[in-house]
Amino acid sequence: MSRFNLEITLGAVLVAVTSIVLIVYGLNEPARMARAEEEQRAQAIEVGAGLFESNCSGCHGLKGEGIPGLCPPLNDAHFFTNRLEEVRWSGSLEDYIISTVAGGRLVSTRPDRYAGNTPLGEPAMPPWSEEYGGPLRLDQIRDIAQFIVNWESTALGEVVIEELPTPTPRPEEAEDPVARGRIVYNERGCGGCHTIEGLSAGIVGPNLSQVGAVAGTRVPDQSAEDYLRESILNPNAHVVEGFQPNIMPQNFGELISPEQLSDLVAFLLAQQ
Amino acid sequence: MLKAVNFQDLRQKLAVALDNRVRAITAGLGIDELRNVLRGDPPVEKPNPRYKVHTTSFLFHIRPRYYQKGSTILSHTFRLGFFTMFFFMVELVTGVILMIYYVPTPNAAYQSILQIMSEVPFGNLMRDLHRLGAEAMVIFTFLHMLRTYFTGSYKKERSFTWLTGVVLLGVTLFLSFFGYLLPWDQLAYWAVTIGTSMAEAAPIGGNELNLLLRGAPDIGAGGLLRAYLLHVILLPLVAILVISIHYYKVAREHGISLPARYDEISLPKEVEKEVKSRQDYLPDLFSHEIYLTVLGLFILIVVTIFFYGGAPLEHIANPQQTPLDTKAPWYFWWLQGMLKLGDKSLMGVILPSLLVVLLFAVPYIDRNPSRLFVRRPVAVAIGVMFVLTLIMLSYMGLPVYGIETPAATRIVQDMAPEEGMGPLREVPYDQLQTGIYIANETPSENLCPELDFGCPKLEEFFETYTERLNAAIESQDLPNGEAIMLIEDWQENLKKVTMRILWDDPESGERREYFRHIYIHKNHGGE
User: Fold this and answer.
1) Which CATH code of 3.40.50.300, 3.40.50.970, 1.10.760.10, 3.40.190.10 fits the domain covering A171-269?
2) Which CATH class is domain A39-155?
3) Where are the domains of chain A?
4) Which of B493, B519, B520, B524 to mutate against chain A (most A CBs within 10 Å)?
């Protein structure tokens, strides 16, 4: 066979084979596209989970459980079944989350239960989108919303997530009230509003980085320890200048045990 | 009435009319001639109408009438120039299709790539073809240049063709470089940030050039739009113009060079006659081009579908977060390697510019008239040295060479990288059994007795993690090191893995800690 004929024959075969490959690939496209979409959603949830932890968990809790008196939970049945009706939102829950996170909320919709209850006080939730002066881009807010929406099955009780057993604390931690107080500080979301350098960066409440040194000088004849105790149990007793009363939850006395309170005070006193 | 129609006459008239139509379309080939061309038979009419086509038809007039037989042998050209052009055409076609969906703004670019991958039929294939085609085009351009250099085909009347070729090499690299930014992911953003910052190091006008490229001090909406316009309009236009000049020289002026052994050594009469005889464009070169095109498409499509892992796409670009390992595209590793050797403006701008000038000047520096290997040992030696230096520099451009990452960070980054799969993500989701795993405490065998088939991959992973820690303890990088891995159920189908490493700081003696949270969704995908 001459080269010309050989090339024409081979070429025809190659065209046929390539066409078959493309047809088979094309038949597989709907399935591949569906899989790609699933994967993209999964990756958005992963990214959203990380963003939620670094931006939202201070107030709304590491697992979206919220902080009583301060921030509503995002992982309960109420949020997934009644919330949209409560605020008369006509779009989807995901849109509602995106809109709320992006623009923040000036006044609480449930002022009796959560922060944002004074008309001239701090907003219930600051805006998070770059557009309105927050730190997040819109795509990041979308990812966070995907992550929050993914709580639905556990919120409605369809799926149960088992908690890891709390690791036994190291002996030196278990015996040190300051270390235990630090855990209380983190667990109760104090850092959502207060700043302690190297630990949290909240700006709603006074900076606590040197509170151990300052507390004793605030009220004449009151020791630092007593001052801190009183301020946690009855926040309106002495409001630091420049801040509004009624912002800090009034019910920490019911939420934490007396031992936890002493640990927390010990931890705060150590912030010199 | 039917009797009045002369069928004989009608048939003839039809045949003539058809022949005229065919001649009009093929710019001169009659229907019999066309059939002969398609069958590979010799021409029927005289003078040879197949040459006439080259003056009457635009598309044929830019093609060669013939090449000398000796110059078309495969082992002389390897069809490298042809395939460079082939990949350029692949890039044009797939690029236009991708342009339909792509949006060049920072807010929408990444989203539009995701859309191409998940909502457009054949979208992912187009993206992979475009990416692979671009890399192939860089390879073939470079190989084509090497071939031309080593066969000495840049000499005498071909020196200007060489010069246009060097321009095309540059255009190809810039096309790839600006196309690299368009997906707007971490990979793209940081590679191009590094690349354009090199322009800043230029001794004169560097700042201005950098600003012109980026549109702002940092790459943002302006920079993306500029890269996009360069990639889809300016550079392709320049490429088409220069390719035309480059090809016109070859096709219409000096042809492909004969292998030096046919050109410079006296040959027996019949061999010389055979070597210098004409290989006509119609039908031989033409059919060969079609064959190569089909072959190229076949290989490219099969490789893309069955052997290519997919064009990379990392997380969306985040100007606030510098990735741990930034890497330029592989064809710029040599430049990254040079940058590690010295001053940014000397190594990143002045020397590469000098290199380009040298490349341009090759035909004017090398005045040796011979093209035979044995008669130009210095040129060949320089060429080999050049290739070896490039490979060496490219190796030095890799992140493994000369960049120190703190030990704990390195271990976690290697086990669970910020981008891509890595060993942790390769553990099947079902095997990620919740629990606390402490290196050198938790026995690494039979980790998951409750799982039906155990968790061999997780065990393997945990073992590697422990080994890495122990190696770092031994080398005194992590004195008194501890490594903990925590796997928690976080949401439905979502697990949280915390990798934490603690060690004593050798200088202050304080306990230090490094950790990373990795969230893994069941449907994350990957191989």
Assistant:
1) 1.10.760.10
2) mainly alpha
3) 39-155, 171-269
4) B519
**What DSSP line would sit under B355-404, residue for residue?**
HHHHHHHHHHH-------GGG-HHHHHHHHHHHHHHHHHHHHHSTTTT--
The answer to whether the beta carbons of residues B414 and B468 sit under 8 Å apart is: yes
Mutate to test the interface with A, among B119, B432, B490, B513 (most CBs of A within 10 A): B490
Class of CATH domain B78-150+157-258+288-397: mainly alpha
What letters, b where the CB count within 10 A reaches 16 and e where it falls short, cover B190-220? bbbbbbbbbbbbbeeebeeebbebbbeeebe
Cα end-to-end distance, chain B, whole Å: 76
B454-483 residue pLDDT tens:
888 999 999 999 999 999 999 888 888 889
Q: What is the C-alpha to C-alpha distance for residues B314 and B329, in angstroms, rounded to an integer?
A: 14
Looking at beta carbons, which residues of chain A come within 8 Å of B522?
42
pLDDT at residue B453, rounded to an integer: 83
Long-range pairs of B42-50 with CB within 8 A, sequence gap ≥ 24: B50/B280, B50/B281, B50/B282
With contact defined as beta carbons under 8 Å apart, do B23 and B30 qualify? Answer: yes
Instruction: List residues bridging with B278 in a β-sheet.
Output: B68
Q: Do B519 and A162 touch (CB under 8 A)?
A: no
- ipTM score of complex: 0.88
Residues B196 and B114: their CA atoms lie apart, in Å, by: 26
CA distance B230 to B472: 47
* Domain edges within chain B: 1-35, 78-150+157-258+288-397, 407-521
Neighbours of B82 (CB within 10 A): 17
Q: Indicate the SS3 state at residue B17.
A: helix
Nearest to A53 among B488, B491, B517 (CB): B517
pLDDT in tens, B208-227: 888 998 888 889 999 999 99
User: Cα(B224)–Cα(B238) distance, rounded to whole angstroms?
Assistant: 20
